[in-house]
Amino acid sequence: MTKPSNKPVDELVPIFFMGKRYDVPASLTIQKALEYAGYQHIRGCGCRGGVCGACGTVYREPSSYKLQVGLACQTVVEAGMHLMILPYYPGNRSIFDIEKMKGTGSEIAALYPEIFKCIGCNACSQGCPMDIDVMHYMAQAIRGDVSGAAETSFDCIMCGLCASRCPAEEVQFNVAILARRLNARYGKPRAKHLAVRVKQVEDGVFEEPLHDLMKLSTDELKQLYRDREAEPQMAEDDWTPQDARYV
Amino acid sequence: MPYPEQLKKLMEKVVSTRSARVERKKKNEEFPALKLEERDPVLRNFHPDFIKGTRREIKVGPSKGYSISNEMVDILEAKSRVNPELVDLTKPDYETDVLVIGAGGAGTAAAILAAENGAKVLIATKLRHGDANTMMAEGGIQAADKVGKDSPYYHYLDILGGGHFVNDPELVYTMVSNAPDALRWLEGLGTNFSKFEDGRMKTMHGGGTCRKRMHYAADITGAEIMKTIRDEARNHIDMIDVIEFCPAVEIVLDESGRCAGAILYNLETSEYHYVKAKAVIIATGGSGRLHIQGFMTTNHYGATADGIVMAYRAGVPISFLHTVQYHPTGVVFPEQAEGILITEKFRGAGANVLNVHGEQFVYEREPRDVEAACIIRECSPEGRGNGVPTPTGKFGVWLDSPMIDLLKGEGTVKKEFPGKSILFRRFGIDISKEPMLIHPTLHYQNGGLDINSKCETNIPGLYAAGEVAGGIHGENRLMGNSLLDVIVFGRIAGKCATEYINKAGELGKPGLEHVKRYNEEVEAAGIEQDRIAPMLLPDYSNPEVREKQLTKDYFGTLS
Question: Does B231 sit within 8 Å of A46, measured CB to CB?
Fold first, then answer.
């Protein structure tokens, strides 16, 4: 197990980074290929695992007129590709107070009235490296379907490529996170058990048992640890333990 | 790339044992877990922490004599990036009440709480807001909130057992007691936790838990939390400023030894800036990008232990850094995804871990250090030599994700693990039909800066929260407790730092004398090296190219 090495293990292929040619190993992702070429990324590199949205990339292959999108950390290079990483895209964001919202579609419309300018061209969906149906969640937002927009956009990494493609100048990713927050807060019932447990903690219900544990010797703790009653893997949520003293 | 023929052939053995394993699982018949006393020998023989020659005593600073990984000592025994004589502290470039260094989960939670308590906040971060290990955490967040079956009492016991009973009791008590409120806070901010229709949180097991208390948002829990709290911080636009691509490189102290801000380094203009602040919260996260022992890592690009370096220089002791967490399941094939985290939630959902013969060799929900050591034992030639060989000459074991659909219904993998389904689909692998090939990977910094339950360090006005701090997890963290750690202690740090500045009075003259002294101490200890720290960014550039990069002061790792 060694750290990522850039040793060429296979043939070199030409790629054109912002128009400039580099010959890189054919098996590398765009991100690692640029490092192989000598770059130390500052912008355009984040989690290196496809979830943070830092390395949205647009590219074209010689065989097709189509503009392609991907994440630099996830997309393997192809011979002759021309590419550019788009580490940032300007996007206006509306301020709101989550406590004062109600979770309705009209609140999204009030904060982002430009959603109604959507012309349904679907360029945003085609430009999404996460294969999210962006146009669909925008349509859901326009219809006031908050939960629909929230669910459709759940995997959004907020890279901004959708906004970069939009002829109607939408900032889809900010609309999407508003829908998700509203839906989580107001579209679903709050967890009652959570509120009850918070109250119990505030009332000091667990103070004594916890402080008793804190005073125990390691051997005494080990014994209690061994004796823990395990909730079975396939148990339903309403499973209860034999020993109910501390629960 | 999809699995090549040789791996498809080996995979047949997994398929041949699968239906029997699923039947046993349905009857709650599990592969026997190791007893407490059986854990030690396997750790001593196969956990990377115990390999001879991989640690050494640090020769300088407040924890002089403490033996930790060579890579960490290397950066602690390095000199400052700045010449203290050249920095003009008389004209601050920025002034704020609270400076938060790092914009991951802990830093963002701290900023929100400080702002809500009336403090002006400046967040300085190396990359973008949200670029952090929090964003990459997948499996979930623990909290003992199921009334009638779980309680902070059992959460405490699980944490102690996972951490080898050496955790700081006060910190563990603080975390388990505040866990339900942390969850309630996140729920209120609009975090999309997976729930039942009636609003009850869905919860699962993690390694080392006796109750199902891992809450999740599909398999991108950390990203969901990070996106939500980042969005919330952006709602406090009048109180919270964020400066991106400006990592802090040194803490500034006033003449009485109180924290008086920090020096930032602008990655794009190469300027150094002085931020004058009444209190500083260090939330710089972990250190996976040090590649301890050459291990690949699941960590974020920026995880280079910057906060440890600068606080240590300023005089904050460190502890529990002698253990490092290797996540049992990192991708080992396809090579393009090497090191990427495969969430423990797969095992929590019932997926077995299997060797080259398609046999179980370990209970899949051992604490992480034990699970990782058992996998290394299975793979290594000095151990059992039952690893699955990859096309690039490495070894791994199978993680049998297709079992989950058989246990919980067709479509469960796709629904519960959308992130990993997309990742593997890009390589032509359907993880609801084919297992994943995994090997332990460098994942978490178990220890760090010494703090108390108010996130205070020994320096007045200097706070630390999240992965950069040590003690909560003892010698081994359990899954779902790092997201909890960053939220609980981030919030505490934000609140306590604000309380501190309200009664701290005016700062004295700011200085960097401690940096000068540290540089002299490094020299006096006879440490011969030309390293500077914090390293800020790992350098993966091609060595052949590097040899031709003749400008001496290009930023980044000077190796």
Answer: no
Task: Determine which helix (DSSP H) or strand (DSSP E) holds B354, and give its type and residue range.
Answer: strand B353-354
Residue A56 near residue A161 (C-beta atoms within 8 A): yes
Establish whether the linkage from the previous residue to B534 is cis, with ω within 30° of 0: yes
Same domain, A102 and A183: yes
Residues of B with CB below 8 A from A37's CB? 542, 545
Residue A233 lies in a domain: no
Distance from CA of A9 to the nearest CA of B (A): 9
Do residues B130 and B269 both lie within one domain? yes
The domain spanning residue A72 has which CATH number? 3.10.20.740
The predicted-structure confidence for A152-205, as pLDDT tens digits, reads as follows 999 999 999 999 999 999 999 999 999 999 999 999 999 999 999 999 999 999
For residue range B208-252, what is the model confidence (pLDDT) as tens digits?
999 999 999 998 999 999 999 999 999 999 999 999 999 999 999
Phi, psi of A6 (to 5 degrees): -110, 20
pTM over 0.80: yes
For residue B111, what are its two tokens?
């900023």
Give the number of domains in chain B: 2
> Distance between CA atoms of B496 and B183, rounded to whole angstroms?
20
Q: Do A1 and B145 touch (CB under 8 A)?
A: no
| Residue A230 within any structural domain of the chain | no
Whether the Cβ atoms of residue B155 and residue B161 lie closer than 8 Å to each other = no
State yes or no: pLDDT of B554 exceeds 60. Answer: no
- Read off the pLDDT of residues A12-63 as tens digits, 9 standing for 90 and up: 999 999 999 999 999 899 999 999 999 999 999 999 989 999 999 999 999 9
Quickly state the pLDDT bin for B541 (edges 50, 70, 90).
confident
Q: Kindly indicate the confidence band of residue B559, based on its pLDDT and cuts at 50, 70 and 90.
A: very low
Rounded Cα gap, residues A106 and A33, in angstroms: 46
| Interface touch A233/B156, C-beta < 8 Å | no
Residue B360 φ then ψ, to 5° = -75, 140
End-to-end C-alpha distance for chain A, whole angstroms = 43
Cβ neighbours of residue B90 under 8 Å, at least 6 residues apart?
none
Query: Are A48 and B300 inside 8 Å of each other by CB?
Result: yes
User: Structural domain of residue B127, as residue ranges?
Assistant: 79-323+445-510
Q: How many folded domains does chain A comprise? A: 3
pLDDT for residue A9: 55
C-beta separation of B345 from B202 below 8 A: no
Residue A83 Cα, gap to closest chain B Cα (Å): 19
Kindly provide the ipTM of the predicted complex, given to two decimals. Answer: 0.96
Q: Any idea what the CATH number is for the domain that residue B159 is in? A: 3.50.50.60
Cα B123 from Cα B229, distance rounded (Å): 14
Nearest chain B residue to A197, by CA: B145
| pLDDT band, residue B552 (cuts 50/70/90) | low
> Whose CA is closest to B106, among B238, B234, B226?
B226
Domain edge (last residue) among B441, B465, B491: B441
Torsion of CA B24, B28, B31, B33, to 10 degrees: 180
> What's the number of CA atoms in the CB half-sphere (13 Å) around residue B91?
3
Please provide the size of chain B in residues.
559
A131: exposed, middle or buried (Cβ count in 10 Å: 0-12, 13-18, 19+): exposed
Chain A: give the shortest CA distance to residue B311, in Å: 24
Look up residue B235 and give its two tokens: 């709602």
Residue A93 lies in a domain: no
- Report whether B301 contacts B127 (CB < 8 A): yes
Q: Does residue B104 sit in the same domain as residue B177?
A: yes
**Residue in the block written with tokens 């912008």:** A43
